[in-house]
Amino acid sequence: MMTPWRYVFLVLGIIISLHYILSFSHQGYGKATSLSSIAEKIGSKPPNPPYKQGISDEYIHHATSSSDSKRKANATFVVLARNGDLTGVISSIKQMEDRFNKEFNYPWVFLNEEPFSEEFKRRTSELTDSPTSYGLIPKDHWYQPDSIDEERAKAAREDMVKNNVIYGGSVPYRNMCRYNSGFFFRHELLQNYKYYWRVEPHVKFFCDIHYDPFLVMQDKGKVYGFTISLFEYIETIPTLWNTVKEFLNANPGLVPADNAMRFLSDDGGETYNRCHFWSNFEIGDLDFWRSEPYSKFFNFLDEKGGFYYERWGDAPVHSIGAALFARKDQIHFFEDIGYRHDPFQHCPQGDSHKRGKCWCNPTENFDYEWYSCLKKYDELF
Q: What is the pTM of this model?
């Protein structure tokens, strides 16, 4: 008998799949510019994705280890939230502390476009023995810039509302997407950190994590880590890929050999297959976002205004940036970190489920549902 949760999954799958089919029938991309020079840089594939090799024992924190002997990365958690998100933030922090951070004591950074309340600061700081910092987002990093033609942007929002596009009428949501795409890593509270783990309100962490993902990122030279990947709605990004191609043609030499273009495109870069990493979970290298290639890329997108004239999300922007400006082996799937952001979840399988004492049902797992993009990631290797 199909559980209610599985029924929701099935319905969402049908909806997303219809978007997938229709978008490729009515892409409206125009004639694509050849990116064969980038496609030619894609290398051959070894037998298994790197995540199937597991985490070596050197990273595992054993109960007998002295806290003084534990190596740590220069890293922090980052939470973008408002005062009204307190209940959901508390839930996420508590799970992260219980599942991981009580053993590793990484600090927390909270960011808000308005000052945090004393209650928010008190209740979040009570949940951890680690340092907590609370930052105000600069207004020019958050609000719709003056360069945007508001009449054009308003017309686009109204059209999306008519077409039932999720968050289609929301300016604050667009502010958030633009901020996460190009500004959060510039905040003064993050300037002295190298790595971050993005945590959102009302998410779930299903498994104990007895190793340090930050050290894996550091020691293995990773720049981006994810748990869920899926297709983006074409209605939110109709001109994004043409804009990406325009940038690449105007800025040759920024894409490294052995990139992850094949995750993004099924035809060598002519069109975008809409695969992206779901950015509500990210473990990443802040210096990668601060780098010249990504900085130029974001600034180019920002000047085009697509965050407001359309509804470009930080998930496809980050994903395209990581796939193009990093090597494919610098992108890591954390298959042993159980995670849920409604309505999708990644539940570790087999030995990883047992080792993590995961409380999610392993049959309720998004990885290889036919509207997941994990198979496209696997094909990189």
A: 0.86
Domain count, the chain: 1
The pLDDT tens digits of the residues spanning 247-292 come to 999 999 999 999 999 999 999 999 999 999 999 999 999 999 999 9
Taking the C-alpha atoms of residue 33 and residue 10, their distance in angstroms, rounded to an integer, is: 36
- CATH number, domain of 368, equals 3.90.550.10
Amino acid, res. 146: D
Judge whether 61 lies within some domain. no
Structural domain including 255 reads 72-378
**Would residue 314 count as lying in a domain?**
yes
Q: For residue 50, what pLDDT band results from cuts at 50, 70 and 90?
A: low
Angstrom CA distances, 208 to 97, 98, 166, 292, 362, stand at 10, 8, 33, 37, 15
Q: Across the beta sheet with 339-341, what order do the strands follow?
A: 204-205, 339-341, 344-346
Distances (CA, A) of 61 to 69, 153, 356, 359: 10, 51, 13, 21
User: Is 6 inside a domain boundary?
Assistant: no
What is the helix (H) or strand (E) element at residue 125, kind and residue range? helix 118-125
Contact indicator for 295, 212 with CB cutoff of 8 Å: no
Residue numbers annotated as active site: 282
- Whether the upstream peptide bond of residue 138 has omega within 30° of 0, thus cis, is no
Q: What pLDDT does residue 70 have?
A: 77
Q: Pick the closest to residue 210 from 95, 333, 91, 336 (CA basis).
A: 336
Composition of the chain by helix, strand, coil, percent to 5: 45, 10, 40
> If you write DSSP's letter for every residue of 202-246 in order, what string do you get?
T-EE-S---B-HHHHHHHHT--EEES-EEEPPGGG-TTHHHHHHH
Q: How is the beta sheet containing 282-285 ordered, strand by strand?
A: 132-136, 108-112, 75-80, 195-198, 282-285, 224-226, 331-333
Query: What Rg value do the Cα atoms of the chain yield, rounded?
Result: 20
Q: What digits encode the pLDDT tens for the residues 177-192?
A: 999 999 999 999 999 9
**What is d(CA 93, CA 89) in angstroms, rounded to the nearest whole number?**
6
| Percent of the chain whose pLDDT exceeds 70 | 82
